[in-house]
Amino acid sequence: MSQASSPGRNSRTMANRLPGDPTPREYVARTIRVDHAGEYGAKRIYEGQLAVLGRTKYGPLLEHMKEQEQVHLDTFSRLIAERRVRPTALLPVWHVAGFALGAATALIGHRGAMACTVAVEEAIDEHYAAQYATLGEDEQPLRDRIEKFRQEELEHRDIGLENEAELAPAYRLLAGAIKAGCKLAIKVSERI
User: Fold this and answer.
1) Number of domains in the chain
2) CA 188 to CA 36: how far, in whole Å?
3) How far apart are CA 84 and CA 106, in angstroms?
4) Taking Cα atoms as reference points, which of 169, 173, 27 lies closest to residue 109?
5) I want to staple 43 with a disulfide (CB 3.0 to 4.6 A). Which of 56, 69, 127, 168 is the partner?
6) How many CB atoms lie within 10 A of CB 145?
7) How many CB atoms are closer than 10 A to CB 130?
8) What is the pTM of this model?
């Protein structure tokens, strides 16, 4: 294992920083900004899905996942204020795009909604794992929160898989497009 990815060996955030890499302060600010944006978007996705499927047997599952996303969002909202991090300027975009993605995939049916959940949560798992590996022991409370939230996102992915996500029409195409969109949203939300 490299020093940056080995838990307990990376004592400082961005310890292996190269010229041109963000400073530790800039990296932490980007981390908080993008995670706040992502959790906001996730909450909006579930709100869109609930608007379509809320009165079906899937409503309670979607509500459970939305409630967890709200806790994540509240945490990053608090960190935005405490750390004086500028939130992304794209929140209005994620407000509309998140709801639209949730509603559109739910209109396909519960399998479409669950396919969306699986795709989003797999992208977030990768994203959170990379952040955890880069943050050092000097940011242990933030690392711990990110790992806890990553585990909850994996729970959401598993719920999606247990509820027939892979049986959604054009699952691979749908999931691939959603993952690509998530990765793009992550990149732009870190900086803008």
Assistant:
1) 1
2) 13
3) 36
4) 169
5) 69
6) 17
7) 14
8) 0.88
Cβ neighbours of residue 28 closer than 8 Å, sequence gap 6 or more: 13, 83, 135, 139, 142
Token pair belonging to 13: 């955030």
Give the side-chain half-sphere CA count within 13 A for 55. 2
User: Which range of residues forms the domain containing residue 151?
Assistant: 22-191
pLDDT average, residue stretch 148-160:
96
Separation between Cα atoms, residue 74 and residue 139, nearest integer Å: 19
Query: 79-83, 145-149, 163-167, 188-192: which has the minimum mean pLDDT?
Result: 188-192
In a domain, 15, yes or no: no
On the 0-12 / 13-18 / 19+ scale of CB atoms within 10 A, 105 is: buried
User: Is residue 11 domain-resident?
Assistant: no
| Assigned token pair, 75 | 């945490």
- pLDDT tens-digit readout, 4-35: 444 444 578 777 777 888 888 899 999 999 99
